[in-house]
Design brief:
Order of helices and strands: EHEHE
Radius of gyration: 14 Å
Strand order of the largest sheet: 2-1-3
Strand content: 15-25%
Helix content: 25-40%
Length: about 80
């Protein structure tokens, strides 16, 4: 099974990132890929035609995944803006 993990925190010592990095040890028979979204642009409708290459690569990763796991901190009772 191909599993894509996404941490909703960019902090170097993020507990959410530590969590998604620990998952492969719990399920060694599966393939884990951690999304690195540092190079993705913030959403702008002006960038939709054509999509930036980094966005197309993200879409392809999500399509190829059997499972997507998102681990994210709460921020003002919602998800972080970067995510």
């Amino acid at each position: 099974m191909n599993i894509l993990t996404i941490s909703g925190s960019m902090r170097a010592g993020s507990f959410n990132t530590m969590l998604v990095k620990a998952l492969p040890a719990l399920a060694p028979d599966h393939t884990f890929t951690q999304l690195d979204y540092a190079g993705l642009p913030l959403f702008s409708q002006d960038l939709e035609n054509p999509f930036p290459e980094s966005v197309t690569a993200l879409k392809d990763q999500i399509k190829a995944a059997d499972v997507v796991i998102i681990s994210t901190p709460e921020y003002n009772r919602t998800i972080p803006a970067a995510l």
